[in-house]
Amino acid sequence: MNVNRTTTFRLRQRLHETDTVSDRPISGRPRCFTQRQDRNLVRNHMNNRFLSASASSRKTRGRNNQRVSANTVRRRLSTCGLRARRPYIGPILTQRHRHQRTLWAQEHAAWDRIQWRCVVFSDDSRFCIDHADGRVRVWRRSGERYRADCVREHDRLCGASLMMWSAISYNERNGPVFFHNRRTINAQTYVQYVPHAHVVPYSAMHRNIVFQQYNARAQKARYTQHFLEQSNVQVLPWPALSPDLNPIEHYFVGLLAEEAGLSRPSTSKR
């Protein structure tokens, strides 16, 4: 059989003792973490969702004061349902903002499909062209994307940008409109490019439409409000800092970015 005599003797002895020549089950490499250390590790990442695995491995010691690798930390967190994901970038919300958003949702929860078909959702977005894409990760479970401690807050973008506007309704779309060579949009410019050129003609062709717009300074200006009122355009009341309530945020703006020739990974939106 071209094997060592000792090997044959050990296989014969194992067959006599266990009725098989297969290897005996072994315990494997001892765990470097105790169950208590596992709980402490998960607790630390639950208290600080943006704590990286590398930073946690440097602060954590296993049994016999041995060093722990970042992959070991990731495996321990993975067994508890925590995965490293890119955080949702959301606006800075106060308690007043959250309360107003809740009231708005409660007031419009009873709207039926016919009422929502009359709403024209609009969005004016600034696409930052040369903004760096920070690869920050947050540890969260499934369904925790919008938890307060899992959201990375930011205020505004910097660098070269492109401003555009568009709107969608139940079965139509309006735009896009590009604000060429416009670093700032005032009320006169907004009325010229958007309500006068698109909203009012669309309202004349469709009855009982409700126009939705954000609370930007140019949109909430008296000049804009007076123009919409004189043009008999009904405006949907909108809570402050609520981009996630608008369905255009989740689909149509990304489509506009592709039409404008902006790659999605390197493009940031306000």
UniProtKB/TrEMBL annotation:
<dbReference type="GO" id="GO:0003677">
    <property type="term" value="F:DNA binding"/>
</dbReference>
<dbReference type="Pfam" id="PF13358">
    <property type="entry name" value="DDE_3"/>
</dbReference>
<dbReference type="GO" id="GO:0015074">
    <property type="term" value="P:DNA integration"/>
</dbReference>
<feature type="domain" description="Transposase Tc1-like">
    <location>
        <begin position="38"/>
        <end position="109"/>
    </location>
</feature>
<dbReference type="Pfam" id="PF01498">
    <property type="entry name" value="HTH_Tnp_Tc3_2"/>
</dbReference>
<dbReference type="InterPro" id="IPR038717">
    <property type="entry name" value="Tc1-like_DDE_dom"/>
</dbReference>
<feature type="domain" description="Tc1-like transposase DDE">
    <location>
        <begin position="119"/>
        <end position="252"/>
    </location>
</feature>
<dbReference type="GO" id="GO:0006313">
    <property type="term" value="P:DNA transposition"/>
</dbReference>
<protein>
    <submittedName>
        <fullName>Transposable element Tcb1 transposase</fullName>
    </submittedName>
</protein>
<dbReference type="InterPro" id="IPR002492">
    <property type="entry name" value="Transposase_Tc1-like"/>
</dbReference>
<dbReference type="InterPro" id="IPR052338">
    <property type="entry name" value="Transposase_5"/>
</dbReference>
<dbReference type="InterPro" id="IPR036397">
    <property type="entry name" value="RNaseH_sf"/>
</dbReference>
